[in-house]
Specification:
elongated; 32% helix; two-stranded antiparallel sheet
């Protein structure tokens, strides 16, 4: 029978391990999102580069009127945030979604040991 022991508390620094784990996760979020979205965009509209009409609804996702855009201006999240049959291409997805993913500026301030 194999007996497992817990780590020696004197030699394991749990706060340091936790700090490193959090830093790794947060610093990996944006690269992961960018790589996955870049991987999925070629499948949009069956791989065609022509536009497909889609319905956009940001009111459901952005129901807080205090959300700011990149220019620090409030986003209107009212009924006007719904668009029907908007022609959208792969390039639109690249320009407006993929290239619009901001860096997590405070991630570099997270402690690492």
């Amino acid at each position: 029978m194999l007996l497992l022991k817990s780590p020696n508390k004197i030699t394991v620094n749990v706060p340091n391990l936790y700090d490193n784990w959090i830093s790794t996760v947060v610093n990996g979020m944006v690269p992961f999102l960018r790589s996955e979205i870049a991987r999925l965009i070629p499948f949009y509209n069956n791989g065609l580069t022509t536009a497909a009409d889609i319905d956009l609804s940001f009111a459901v996702l952005l129901d807080n009127a205090n959300i700011l855009n990149r220019n620090k201006q409030p986003i209107d999240t009212g009924g006007a945030a719904f668009t029907i049959d908007r022609p959208t291409t792969q390039q639109n997805l690249i320009d407006n979604i993929l290239n619009g993913i901001p860096d997590i500026m405070w991630a570099s301030t997270l402690p690492r040991h």
